[in-house]
Write a structure and sequence with these properties.
Layout: H1 3-16, H2 19-52, E1 73-81, E2 87-95, E3 102-108, H3 118-128, E4 132-136, H4 154-169, E5 174-184, H5 186-197, E6 203-207, H6 212-218, H7 226-246, H8 265-274, H9 296-301, E7 314-320, H10 326-335, E8 341-346, H11 353-356, H12 363-377
Parallel strand pairs: 3-4, 3-5, 5-6, 6-7, 7-8
Antiparallel strand pairs: 1-2, 2-4
């Protein structure tokens, strides 16, 4: 039957229906519309409830940081959630006596660390300088929620920064035009990725940055061949099978202890921070049994810095002259565009000097960078 011929028959069919039949059809249609409208009206409430319901976390209330508490800032514990429904734990630092609205900065890193270590030190120090700051534990680590534990993800780890921005934008004491982020070590790469994807981030600082995709796919100093990469995939996927069979996730062991005599200098430097009283923390993966070994699989195939050339907001990249990881920042900086980008190399500094050495970390320059970047957003 041709569709044109059948459409011409519709009026005749309708004419042949009795008034009773037509009334029944009209009543049925009206009831269907009412039921549909009722269902649609109930959907937003259900979605809203599920998107804001957060896992209840058990947060330590004692001061258990690796650095002393400042009397120049007010410290509180807070939680917020990312768009994957994971509840994140954070330390909020607010300058004593500060007048709102304030510029706000979210801090995270290093890779495999917790907020009681480096990120907390950065956050508290910047709060002393007049910013409202928060240092957060990434998803799956520290006091934050998420299972399996000790997981990292190119997407979720990046989104944790934007989730922190979500939270900051809901605070009455935060200026929505003055929000920045600081990413340290591996979280420097996630910070750049977040800045490329989230224009709400008005300024970004990376300190002693790692490109986690590059180091996992190519090894240190890009020494891995395609064959090496294939064998790594074989090994890690065999481990996936074993983990699934055992119902567990094998961890990478954290920072090696004791340090082998033939280990590179930077391994000893990591040990000096994570495995000694200087930086050890009981919840830190690097200080203990490490992250999940199969985390590397996601980073091998997903380059997180693909679109950093499109970052329009201000970026300050900081690295130590003697750091083994310096090439990550130098190469990433070459891909940035615009006259609001800067690479600052600290003479004589190694990778972990930028973790906690207050004589080396250029907080004066970081403060000036954020203030200038935030001022420029007003014009």
């Amino acid at each position: 039957m041709r569709f044109g011929a059948s459409r011409r028959n519709f009026p005749r069919i309708a004419d042949s229906l009795s008034n009773t039949t037509i009334m029944k059809l009209q009543l049925f249609a009206a009831l269907t519309l009412l039921m549909s409208a009722s269902l649609r009206a109930s959907e937003p409430a259900t979605e809203k409830q599920s998107s804001t319901t957060m896992e209840k976390l058990e947060l330590t209330q004692e001061w258990d940081k690796t650095f002393p508490q400042s009397d120049k800032v007010e410290h509180t514990k807070i939680t917020f959630h990312n768009r994957y429904g994971i509840t994140l734990a954070a330390d909020l630092y607010r300058p004593v006596g500060a007048q709102a609205p304030l510029g706000a900065i979210a801090v995270c890193g290093p890779y495999g660390a917790v907020k009681e270590q480096v990120s907390g030190l950065y956050a508290q120090t910047l709060a002393e300088r007049g910013f409202l700051t928060l240092a957060f534990d990434p998803s799956f680590c520290g006091e934050s929620g998420g299972t399996p534990r000790y997981l990292t993800s190119p997407e979720i780890s990046t989104d944790d920064f934007s989730a922190a921005v979500d939270y900051l934008l809901t605070r009455d004491d935060v200026d929505p035009q003055r929000i920045g982020i600081v990413g340290i070590c591996g979280w420097g790469g996630f910070a750049l990725n977040a800045a490329a994807n989230d224009p709400r981030i008005r300024a970004t600082v990376t300190s002693t940055m790692y490109d986690m995709s590059r180091v996992n796919a190519n090894g240190y100093f890009d020494a891995m061949t395609p064959d090496d990469r294939y064998h790594l995939r074989e090994e890690l996927n065999a481990l996936r099978t074993e983990d699934y069979r055992n119902g567990t996730y094998t961890r990478d062991g954290g920072v090696v202890d004791p340090v082998p005599a033939d280990a590179p200098l930077f391994v000893q430097q990591y040990h000096d921070y994570y495995k000694t009283a200087r930086g050890y923390h009981r919840r830190s993966p690097n200080s203990n049994e490490g992250l999940n070994r199969t985390n590397s699989l996601a980073f091998i195939n997903m380059p997180i810095l693909s679109y950093i050339g499109e970052i329009r907001s201000a970026v300050l990249m900081i690295h130590g002259e003697k750091a083994h990881s310096r090439y990550f920042s130098e190469d990433a900086f070459k891909r940035l565009t615009g006259d609001n980008k800067e690479l600052l190399i600290i003479p004589g500094a190694c990778h972990v000097d930028l973790y906690d050495n207050l004589a080396v970390i250029p907080f004066d320059r970081i403060e000036r960078f954020f203030r200038q970047a935030f001022d420029n957003t007003r014009h």
